[in-house]
Automatic annotation (TrEMBL):
The name this protein goes by in its record: non-specific serine/threonine protein kinase
Top-level EC class: transferase
Catalytic activity from the UniProt record: L-seryl-[protein] + ATP = O-phospho-L-seryl-[protein] + ADP + H(+); L-threonyl-[protein] + ATP = O-phospho-L-threonyl-[protein] + ADP + H(+)
UniProt keywords, alphabetically: ATP-binding, Kinase, Nucleotide-binding, Serine/threonine-protein kinase, Transferase
E.C. code: 2.7.11.1
SUPFAM superfamilies linked: Protein kinase-like (PK-like) (SSF56112)
Residue span, Protein kinase domain: 1-184
Domain of life of the source: Eukaryota
Organism field: Streblomastix strix
Length: 184
């Protein structure tokens, strides 16, 4: 196991928020490429992480991102679906919150939440309490972008936050986006 001396992505986001900074496009696409690459590897092994969030994405001393904390992960086969409600509520996909069966696409939803927070420094479904958060995730569209100006990045996040899991790209699809492929 590798020690990640630079903490986690949540710490990075908190520091940016504290310093009133926003992420530059190059770093955004670099981070997106690294996370997508990790998800591609995980999903290729038929593992659903189920708790992807900035606090579970670690920064190594070389500035590389590593996905960690597989405590809630589940191995599924090609015909299997997961059914258990597992994960951090603010990163759960609509299908989990609706208690529907689900696939690795729940991780892609969580990835979209992570990227939105990385770019905007706030949650796309920022609400006052847990009940309204769940309702917002299931029924509402994410908050409009304020900081993120790059259309490719916006489209990526919007596609990841599709309420219809079948319309969400998988990690390999994301790695084909030119702005991400160049980083990978």
């Amino acid at each position: 196991m590798e020690y990640c001396q630079n903490g986690d992505l949540q710490k990075y986001i908190d520091k940016m928020r504290q310093e009133n900074k926003i992420i530059n496009e190059n770093n955004f696409f670099d981070f997106a490429a690294q996370i997508a690459s990790g998800l591609s590897l995980i999903h290729g092994r038929k593992i659903i992480h189920r708790d992807l969030k900035p606090a579970n994405i670690f920064l190594s001393g070389q500035g590389r991102l590593k996905i960690g904390d597989f405590g809630l992960s589940k191995v599924i086969d090609e015909k299997d679906y997961a059914h258990t409600v597992a994960g951090t509520r603010s990163y759960l996909s609509p299908e989990i919150l609706n208690k529907w069966s689900y696939t690795e696409k729940v991780d892609m939803w969580s990835f979209g939440i992570c990227l939105y927070i990385l770019a905007e420094l706030t949650h796309p479904f920022d609400t006052k309490n847990e009940i309204s958060l769940v309702t917002s995730i299931v029924q509402q569209q994410p908050a409009p972008f304020v900081n993120l100006k790059n259309q490719v990045a916006q489209n990526l996040i919007i596609s990841l936050l599709s309420k219809d899991s079948a319309k969400r790209p998988n990690a390999d699809d994301i790695l084909q986006i030119p702005e991400i492929a160049i980083q990978h």
